[in-house]
UniProtKB/TrEMBL annotation:
The protein's name in its UniProt record: ABC-2 type transport system ATP-binding protein
Membrane topology: Peripheral membrane protein
Main localization, broad class: membrane
Organism domain of life: Bacteria
Domain ABC transporter: 9-234
Species whose genome carries this gene: Umezawaea tangerina
Coiled coil start-end: none
Subcellular location: Cell membrane
Keywords of the record: Antibiotic resistance, ATP-binding, Nucleotide-binding, Transport
Amino acid sequence: MVDMANPVIQVEGLRCSYGDFEAVRGVDFEVARGELFGLLGTNGAGKTTTMEAVEGLRATTGGTIRVLGADPLADRRAIRPKVGIMLQDSGFPGDLTVGEMVAFWRSTSSRASDAAEAVEALDLVHRVDVRIKQLSGGERRRLDLLLATLGRPEVLFLDEPTTGLDPESRQRVWEVVRGLLDGGTTIVLTTHYLEEAESLAHRIAIMSEGRIAVSGRVADVLARQPARISFDVPAGFDVCALPILAGDVVHHPAGRVEVRTGELQRDLGDLLDWARRDGRALTGLRANHASLEDVFHAVRTDEKAMSR
Ligand SMILES: Nc1ncnc2c1ncn2[C@@H]1O[C@H](COP(=O)(O)OP(=O)(O)OP(=O)(O)O)[C@@H](O)[C@H]1O
């Protein structure tokens, strides 16, 4: 059960600028202990800038941030041992081997976890004697995650942790992240993979042009978007033949009818009754709740409408 009464991370009215350009324009969110909060958004929406500010790596121009009750920039030394950070580009020394880097990193933490276990979990055993600069992009990402989690952080920031990973490696990273959540770690994650957010996040926020456009529990965010029912219809089909439905009907030229509805069960029932009565086969019938992709698309559409 997520305890929102005692958030581990509190961000209020956050603003960040690069010169005259304001990249983050008043962002608010809270993350409870043991929760995974997903920060999504288009390229340039302000996710990394927000993450860097919350990590204490970037000065802000407005608002307040508290991580474990402290200001992450001013009180960095106090909270740093409890925080793990996986940047988009970690810049670790390429001449060290994986094993040397892990040993060095481990020696810097008083709370280090079992390195051998972590190396195994992230499938890097066979790369221990390889120099970092010789790793593939996916292996680098897995090493970055390993190093970010080695100190058993209470709070973990993951900036696009699975970019460039093949599906199997991505699953492996998800397993490691789920294990950390089971152990009570609080995680903030940015990602462009919507299925990753859908699969891992308790709550998400979708950023658009420096602000949070949509936020909430994944199920609640999805429930705010219409569901879809679709099926094939023969050439020359007249949509007036359909029963009266709560949703909007779109007749695609390729011979498919789509219903976008906030009343999935009722409209689906009415359509099935109608098909049975008229002896019609609804070939290719599909009924789905909205996906995060639909929500993302709606945010993009609003973004474009606002910029017109
Ligand atoms: N060093 C910088 N100097 C000037 N502008 C910057 C700098 N870094 C980022 N920006 C701008 O700030 C905005 C937000 O960038 P940010 O990297 O936070 O976005 P993002 O949501 O993380 O994007 P992406 O998904 O591409 O990583 C963008 O318009 C970007 O061009």
